[in-house]
Design goal:
The chain has helices at 3-16, 32-40, 55-64, 77-83, 124-130, 148-151, 153-156; strands at residues 46-49, 70-74, 91-95, 108-113, 135-141, 162-166, 173-177. It is of the alpha/beta class and 187 residues long. α3 (55-64) links the parallel β1 and β2 (70-74). It is globular, with a radius of gyration of 17 Å.
C-alpha cells in the first residue's frame, strides 16, 4: 500500500475512533422497511427521537431533495456529535437534557421513536403518547413482545386507533396512528 493511502486510512481511523463503541449490528436498522414506507407516503415534518448511525443519515437523505423539515433529538453526546454532521437548513439537531421536560410542539407526519431510556423511569411508550394527537405516523423500533415492559409499550397501545406490527425481521417494528389506517403497510 502506498504512503498516501496509508496516511488517508490512519486519518480516517483517528476521526472515527470516538465512534468505535457505537453498535453497528444489522439489528439497529430493522425499522427501515416501515420507516421508509411512511416517509415516502407523507410530506410533512419528521421528528427522530434518538439519533443513530443508520436512521439519521437515512432520514437526512430522504428529506434532502425537497428540503423537508427533519428534527433529530438526542441526549447522548457521542451520538449528538455524529448527528451534527447532518445539520442543515432543513435538518435541525437538538440536544435533549431531560426528555420529560421537552416540549414537542407542532404537527408531524412521521415520528421515529428509537431513543435510549436506560436508567430512566420515563419510557418510549410515554413519548409515543405525547405524539398521539399530533402525528400521522409513529414508528417504534424494538417493539417485539419482549420490549413491552422495558419501553412501556403494552400500556399505551390501546390509546391508538391503528396499529401495525411488522415482524419481517428481529427486532420488530410497530407503526401507530390515530389518523391513518395502516392496512396499506401489509402490502
Amino acid at each position: 500500500m502506498n504512503n498516501r493511502k496509508q496516511y488517508t486510512l490512519r486519518q480516517r481511523e483517528q476521526v472515527n475512533e470516538k465512534f468505535k463503541h457505537i453498535n453497528l449490528e444489522m439489528q439497529t436498522s430493522t425499522h427501515f422497511p416501515m420507516l421508509i414506507k411512511v416517509v415516502q407516503a407523507t410530506e410533512g415534518p419528521i421528528i427522530e427521537l434518538g439519533s443513530g448511525l443508520f436512521s439519521t443519515p437515512l432520514l437526512h437523505w430522504l428529506c434532502f431533495d425537497k428540503k423537508r423539515t427533519l428534527i433529530t433529538c438526542e441526549s447522548y453526546l457521542h451520538y449528538l456529535e455524529f448527528a451534527n454532521k447532518f445539520k442543515a437548513d432543513f435538518h435541525d439537531i437538538r440536544f435533549i437534557k431531560d426528555w420529560e421536560k421537552e416540549n414537542f410542539e407542532g404537527r408531524y407526519s412521521v415520528v421515529l421513536i428509537d431513543h435510549n431510556v436506560n436508567g430512566r423511569k420515563h419510557t418510549r411508550g410515554d413519548d409515543a403518547l405525547r405524539f398521539k394527537d399530533i402525528a400521522d405516523y409513529i414508528v417504534l423500533h424494538d417493539a417485539g413482545d419482549e420490549a413491552h415492559e422495558k419501553y412501556g409499550y403494552a400500556e399505551m397501545y390501546p390509546q391508538f386507533k391503528y396499529r401495525y406490527d411488522w415482524k419481517g425481521c428481529y427486532p420488530h417494528t410497530t407503526v401507530l396512528s390515530n389518523f391513518k389506517d395502516l392496512s396499506w403497510l401489509q402490502n
